[in-house]
Amino acid sequence: MKIKILHKIPHALLYSRLVVAILIIIFSFTVISPIIIVTLSIYAILSDVFDGIIARQLKISTIEMRQLDTKIDTVFWFSCLFYICITHSQFLKAHLLQISILVFSELFIIAFGFLKFEERISYHTIFSKFWALLLLWFFIDLILNNSSHYSFIISFWYGIFVQMEILLITIILKDNQTDVPGFLKAIKLRKGLKISRNRLFNG
Prior knowledge:
Oligomer: single chain
Distance between the termini: 26 Å
Strand content: under 5%
Helix content: over 70%
Largest sheet: none
Structural class: mainly alpha
């Protein structure tokens, strides 16, 4: 019984993040304390970290689970973008070009992955994990201070770098794989070589 309950924790964390995304969208249309949105977003990132760690420790991490994790991550970040559109429209207008570039690159990579592999890519690269932290920093900065400068600039340019690496990995790989730490590892995978992965974050 205890083992069955433990095995449900990763999926519970996954779907709780989806609930958070829905709540953020709903709260976009209500007057609510910024602290609540900040708390929800911090929880979402923590759940994203621990669902994978727990699944790997229990040895129940699957390709389907990793792909679902990526899909829910995408929904969560787009819910944050929706919140910004509704509650911080002036910031959106001032940075429309940069935000549009990030959104376009994300959608392009998703589409490119589907065209090449006929399924959602889900690499969970090391650099992308740090991008999530930077995006969280930016999101909290904007919510609490009603403005963001350095956190947005750093998140934007780092995000461009991350998206370029993900696109490069997609080009390099012959077959779709999950948990590819970086493009150098992708080159080894293309050659049929085994790669080392971080036990906590990639395998």
